[in-house]
Amino acid sequence: MSAPAAVLAGLGGYVPPRTVTNEELSRRMDTSDAWIVQRTGIRKRHWADPGVATSDLAVEAGHRALKSAGAGAPDDIGMVVVATATPDQQIPATAPDVAARLGLGPVAALDVAAGCSGFVYALATASAALVAGYAERVLVIGAETFRPFLNPADRSTAVIFGDGAGAAVLRRGTSDEAGAVQSVDLGSDGAFKDLVALPGNGSRHRSTDRAPHPDDQYIRMDGKEVFVHAVRRMAQSSAVALARAGWRVDQVDHVVGHQANLRILDALARQLGVDRSRVVTHIEQVGNTSAASIPLALADAADQGRFQPRDRLLLTSFGAGLTWGSAALTWPEITLT
Ligand code: COA
């Protein structure tokens, strides 16, 4: 039986032009191409040039997604949701600026802060708004500019994160259409908030009236602990999203997980019982782009012609918070620009 649903109508990705190879990093810090490839799968990432902020990448990706959604799409966009852990500023949110620069008029615009799970959280926010009838089309963007928040003295984070943005246009449609979101699962556990953190810029720190320690201005991560939580939570959340969609795991054509580490994606495939050939990977080219990672991986795989209309996709993500989220959707008939 068909029901109101969010339907994927357009997609676009953008990474800044500057490529940073593992070799380049190994000239700057005590690391090597062999270590990075073996432990993470990453071969290169893109870093935004000085002066380029998250909104700049978001506008590029948003523009491409609007184009992919077809002529006239900007006219009926009713909401812009920007998922980011690296907003341009503390105040205001990044989304209103992005909406204005895309010429979308006086639309609803908000940021979603859910770390690397941000895109799935934003997708869920957009789906809810569409199903509730608050908007006919929503532009969802995951965008990050990590370079300024990477401690050059911390090789465990500096080699992992990359900059980029991925965007999707969702429209109000029905669950039987190709591209329809079939289910969502979201979760969090704040007891582990210190596992991935950037404490220096918030009200907790400011309330002490002490200048933040220089290290607190950079992202820090307990990689080993995060790894274990990531695999477990993405597997559990995937199972919930699949159950809500009424899909068996063997019916999933493509698993598009958060691109944090190739070994995490391998372990996830094993836990889910999914053949590795059905797992989409993009981390090799861009590193961990946090909230941008899933839409960038989708855009890359779509560009390679990997998806067919009505293929079944499982998106699953995990990030700082801790947060996690999954969504089941079918692939639409869309054209990327
Ligand atoms: N180059 C060379 N050596 C490095 C290194 C680097 N870039 N980073 C860490 N090492 C070293 C460590 O110092 C350690 O050395 P030691 O054994 O002498 O102490 C060794 O490599 C192993 O470090 P460890 O942290 O145990 O490595 P790991 O296999 O866990 O890989 C991560 C580290 C960060 C790649 C991995 O834990 C990971 O991907 N975690 C999940 C991250 C994630 O999902 N983030 C998403 C949420 S934002």
- Mean pLDDT across all residues, rounded? 96
Question: From the helix content, strand content and strand pairing, which structural class follows?
Answer: alpha/beta
Heterogens: coenzyme A
Biggest sheet strand line-up? 1-7-6-4-5
Radius of gyration: 19 Å
Uncertain segments are none
What series of H and E elements makes up the topology?
Answer: EEHHEHEHEHEHEEEHEHEHHHEE
Q: Can you tell me the CATH topology of the largest domain?
A: Peroxisomal Thiolase, Chain A, domain 1
CATH architecture classification of the largest domain: 3-Layer(aba) Sandwich
Total helical segments: 11
**For the record, what is the CATH homologous superfamily label of the largest domain?**
Thiolase/Chalcone synthase
End-to-end Cα distance, whole Å, is: 33 Å
Shape: globular
Q: Portion of residues in helices?
A: 25-40%
Count of the domains = 2
SS strand fraction: 15-25%
Number of E-state strands: 13
Biggest sheet layout: 5 strands, mixed
Name of the CATH class of the largest domain? Alpha Beta
In short:
The protein is α/β, with parallel strands linked by helices. The protein has 11 helices and 13 strands.
Structure commentary:
Helix 4 links the parallel strand 4 and strand 5. The protein has two domains: 4-174, 3-Layer(aba) Sandwich (Peroxisomal Thiolase, Chain A, domain 1); 181-330, Thiolase/Chalcone synthase (Peroxisomal Thiolase, Chain A, domain 1). With 337 residues, it is an alpha/beta fold. It has helices at 22-28, 33-40, 54-68, 95-101, 118-132, 155-158, 203-206, 223-245, 262-272, 283-286, 293-303; strands spanning 4-14, 19-21, 44-46, 77-83, 108-112, 137-144, 164-174, 181-188, 196-197, 220-221, 254-257, 312-319, 323-330. Bound molecules: coenzyme A. Coenzyme A binds next to helix 2, helix 6 and helix 8.
